[in-house]
Amino acid sequence: xxxxxxxxxxxxxxxxxxxxxxxxxxxxxxxxxxxxxxxxxxxxxxxxxxxxxxxxxxxxxxxxxxxxxxxxxxxxxxxxxxxxxxxxxxxxxxxxxxxxxxxxxxxxxxxxxxxxxxxxxxxxxxxxxxxxxxxxxxxxxxxxxxxxxxxxxxxxxxxxxxxxxxxxxxxxxxxxxxxxxxxxxxxxxxxxxxxxxxxxxxxxxxxxxxxxxxxxxxxxxxxxxxxxxxxxxxxxxxxxxxxxxxxxxxxxxxxxxxxxxxxxxxxxxxxxxxxxxxxxxxxxxxxxxxxxxxxxxxxxxxxxxxxxxxxxxxxxxxxxxxxxxxxxxxxxxxxxxxxxxxxxxxxxxxxxxxxxxxxxxxxxxxxxxxxxxxxxxxxxxxxxxxxxxxxxxxxxxxxxxxxxxxxxxxxxxxxxxx
Length: 418
Prior knowledge:
Layout: H1 8-38, E1 53-59, E2 62-77, E3 80-84, E4 89-94, E5 103-104, E6 109-113, H2 116-157, H3 170-195, E7 198-200, E8 205-210, E9 217-218, E10 223-229, E11 232-240, E12 261-268, E13 271-286, E14 292-300, E15 319-336, E16 345-349, E17 355-359, E18 361-365, E19 369-374, E20 381-383, E21 396-400, E22 413-414
Parallel strand pairs: 1-21
Antiparallel strand pairs: 1-20, 1-22, 2-11, 2-15, 3-10, 4-6, 4-9, 5-8, 6-7, 8-10, 11-14, 12-13, 12-15, 13-14, 15-19, 16-17, 16-20, 18-19
């Protein structure tokens, strides 16, 4: 019969037995796994191809291109007038069109001023003319009588002495004639004042601002309204000196008549509207502050008063974008501006689908495009995608785009198939 605790030797033997069982299981499993793997053939190793970038490309095409110069300006009237009263009086009548924004035709009555005083002045002037004419007739008769009387006295006295001008009443006759001319001139002035009480439109136009109305008393020099003609609108366009060689600007000596065609656009109510005109003249001097030459474009019938030429009237004060048609130049390659890198380099792709950097010569650049005249061959493939740290010889894949519709592109992305 056992008494007390187990001996240390027995405890150690029990612990050894418990640890040997897991070790034996792990060893058996390892040997089984090794045996199973030894029964299979190892697959051949294959290296993944290096990643290639997918890029947008276009084909370079040499062509004859008409340069477009883009500028901006504000529409203004060619002819504008401050209507001013030339007589004093009370405004008795105004035209229904005599309002801000009202259209009128040449010769239409705009304002009528009280003419009673001026009509009375005309009557007085007519009376003065009649009186002066009577005086001239009287002096003519007296002069004829004096000449005949002098002739009779000379015959009676057998004298050949000449009569003086005063004897023949020539000064009196000249004075009467002068008084008649003065009266006639005064009548013309009074009739003019009477005519000026009726103010008529000098041209087909529009009231920009009304400054007087019916019932108001005006004096000589009072402003009645601001008007402008609607036959022609003008746009003053600033042209930098670097753009001048690309345009055939009008000149009174070498190139008279209308100049380059101008296409005008403006956003009105969320929609883009179009008009067209021509450059008609330049201001002839460079602006000292901005160093630009101002050219003047004209648009006929901007308010659609004649032929309903436009979908939307070209209103005075509209801010427009103007595209001026320039000279035609041969053998230019037109590319999006985004392809141009530092030092006039662009990326091209060779037959091995590798990136190659080429330095090009530029004929002109604008906000959207560059025009290459040297350094790039016809039908070469040009990379359009903006690349991060590209290296010559990098392999790429191509996605062809049209140069007319491509102006900006996404950045390069790596192929996910490794």
